[in-house]
Amino acid sequence: MADLEGNLDAHNWGIDQPQKTAGSRIKGAGQLDFGMRHRLARIFADDGHTTMLAFDHGYFQGPTRGLERLDLSIVPLAPYADALMGTRGAFRSTIPAECGNALVLRASGGPSVLKELSNERVAVEMADAVRLDVAAVAVQVFIGGDFETQSIANLNQLVDAGFGAGMPVLGVTAVGTQMTRDARYLGLATRIIAEFGAQLVKTYFIEEGFEQVVAGCPVPIIMAGGKKQPVPDALAMAWKAIDQGAAGVDMGRNIFQRENPTAMIQAVKGIVHEGLTVEQACEEYRDLSGGAED
For every one of its 294 residues, what pLDDT tens digit does the chain have, with 9 covering 90 and above? Predict the structure, then answer.
């Protein structure tokens, strides 16, 4: 079997040699059709990075804290994000059609928090994603989970339909409670998602080996924010991810559950697009929030 335990360090990751992508500022997108490249260009700014705001949590856990009223919590934050990640119900009912954000549509689902979450199906037809004018569709992929094969089938179904519609697919690495978040696992999961055709991948940051995970994935990696952390820790995680090659940051709870979400998203955006250090971003959060220390 390839890559037995202990072989990881023998690989040539080429950390100091970024992947060349002729014809596009977006990793791996140079040979895609015009429609896909045009949609990806909505997600990623001219610097090749994106600040994404995720608020799709309700599709399996209902009115999450901070998302009780999307019109009050998310709509005011939209001007500070490059992309919004949500469900078609939320987009149609709450997000103003005049918003200029790229929309990333949650397209898989099924079980709630009361059931086995990996037992998902494709939940949105590609035709409806096109009607919504979204920039990408997102699908959970449960590598190593009980329904791994089914989730990969979901991914492939959306990738096939996406090629027909010019629609990029964001593959999301879903790490179950039994999975270890390390470079070996996330490297496996992200590479499998990219190999099956996803045009971008969302995964978690890890302290050791994240650069290898990014280098081993031939399409852009966007860092998932995960559970709420103290402000300095969340901003440090975002900075490290960008510094180690991530193309963007997709945060939800680390933004909308803050004392001052507007200040936090601006601090995150400062790291992603303006090159702020962690200390500078923390200072910006304190200044904009009136001294909040959460």
Answer: 445 555 555 578 888 888 877 778 999 999 999 999 999 999 999 999 999 999 999 888 888 899 999 999 999 999 999 999 999 999 999 999 999 999 999 999 888 877 887 789 999 999 999 999 999 999 999 999 999 999 999 999 999 999 999 999 999 998 765 667 899 999 999 999 999 999 999 999 999 999 999 999 999 999 999 999 999 999 999 999 999 999 999 999 999 999 999 999 999 999 999 999 999 999 999 999 999 988
d(CA 21, CA 172) in angstroms, rounded, equals: 22
- 102, 107, 112, 113 alpha-carbon torsion, rounded to 10°: -50
Kindly tell me the sign of the dihedral angle through the C-alpha atoms of 224, 70, 272, 233. Answer: negative
Q: Which of 20, 27, 202, 240 is catalytic?
A: 202
* pTM score: 0.92
Q: Could you write out the DSSP letters of every residue in 8-37?
A: GGGS---TTSPPP-TT-SSTT-TTS-HHHH
Q: How far is CA 77 from the centre of its chain?
A: 17
Catalytic status, residue 228: no
**Contact criterion met (CB below 8 Å) for 202 and 170:** yes
Q: What share of the chain is helix, strand, coil (3-state, %, to 5)?
A: 40, 15, 45
Residue 158 near residue 122 (C-beta atoms within 8 A): yes
Cα angle: 279, vertex 281, 283; to 5 degrees: 70
